[in-house]
Amino acid sequence: MLPTWRALLSDFRTPCLHQASLNLEREIANRFAAGTSYMYVHGQNLIRARDIHLPTPTDVAHPVHDESGTNFLGAYYHVPSFSTCQMTRSMTRPFPPRINPLAWPNAVLGATNQFESAASSVYHGATLSIRRRMADGLYFRLAYTFAHANDDGQDAGVAGRPVKVQNSYSTSSKRGPSVTDQRHRLALSWIGEPQPFRTRALARLFKDWKLSGVVTIGSGRPVDARVFGDPNQDGNSSNESLAGLRTKRVSWP
């Protein structure tokens, strides 16, 4: 097995965030207040990795197999590949079609992952809330947030194998919803000071007790629209996008 190399680009920069927020709140009734807020977060110089040791890709009709990887399903997946597809039978490939092993430009080197300050992200979030100040032993806050986060393939997995290694011929990654993107979120928090006891002894014993809770309900998060295996033969099976999609992720309802 060939060694895998990792390196930082010479002009690697520390990731940075620009953040802005606006909050407004107004009392609408005795002990009740309503508020609205907006938050904007822009990430720059985020980490992304590229494998810079790959041959020139060519368009290949990649055979589609089942999950076992052995049974050909009679269909082909057209993808720019760094390897070739063998359509004829041979001693080493008796059951075509089969993808040939990747031939590295330098036969003594494997993947060379170069970490760069190349990715960015944007988050927008707006919240509407209503709260009741503590009175008569009860406080609560109800808030609804509508938000959207997207990026172009940031990769925080510096240690070990990168999660989204981009090949050397894909310096720009497809932009799409971030893994943290959640469009709708409803949250209810409350604090209660129950005083159910009439007798002085029990009331004294439980007078400092509080009950609290938080309930959250949210919409689904996006999932990667990927295919099984390693169709482009870049040695990484975690970055295979489904053909025909404009973004790298699709939102889950």
Descriptive report:
This protein has 253 residues and is an all-beta fold. It has two domains: 5-55 and 106-170 and 181-219, no CATH class; 59-101, no CATH class. It has one helix spanning 200-206, and strands spanning 5-8, 16-29, 32-51, 58-65, 72-81, 85-86, 98-99, 112-135, 138-151, 166-167, 176-177, 184-192, 211-218, 223-224, 249-250. Strands 1, 2, 3, 8, 9, 10, 11, 12 and 13 form a nine-stranded mixed β-sheet that branches. The longest helix is centred in the C-terminal third of the chain and has 7 residues, at 200-206. It is elongated and about 90 Å long. The model has no long low-confidence stretch (mean pLDDT 79).
Short précis:
With 253 residues, the protein is mainly beta. It has one helix and 15 strands; from the N terminus they run E-E-E-E-E-E-E-E-E-E-E-E-H-E-E-E.
Rg of Cα set = 27 Å
Which spans of ≥5 residues are poorly predicted at pLDDT below 50?
none
Q: Which sheet architecture does the biggest sheet show?
A: 9 strands, mixed
SSE order: EEEEEEEEEEEEHEEE
Average pLDDT rating: 79
Shape verdict: elongated
Structural class comes to mainly beta
- State the distance separating the first and last CA atoms: 42 Å
Taken together, the total number of domains comes to: 2
Strand content: over 45%
Q: How many helices in DSSP terms?
A: 1
Helix content: under 10%
Task: Give the total of beta strands.
Answer: 15
Defining traits:
mainly beta; 2 domains; 253 residues; 3% helix; 15 strands; 1 helix
